[in-house]
Protein: DUF3243 domain-containing protein
Organism: Paenibacillus paeoniae
Amino acid sequence: MSTVLTNFDTWKHFLADRVSQAKKMGLTEDTIANLAFEIGSFLDEKVDPKNDEERVLKELWDLGDETERKTIARLMVRFVEKS
């Protein structure tokens, strides 16, 4: 996964592929957003930002409460779907 995280565009494509796979498996938007929140929580705790975009996301994540973090996760899912 470390290669995926070094370039933000690579990360977006990776996440978009996973969202697409989840939809094909029949997961709901809410389930996908919850998984994105869990991934975001994991990355926040375990992975140092590798680029400027990740640093901005981490700073926003750290500023937010749980509800705001869930919103960030949901927006990230929509962001990669539109990219």
In short: The mean pLDDT is 91. The CA atoms of residues 40 and 46 lie 10 Å apart.
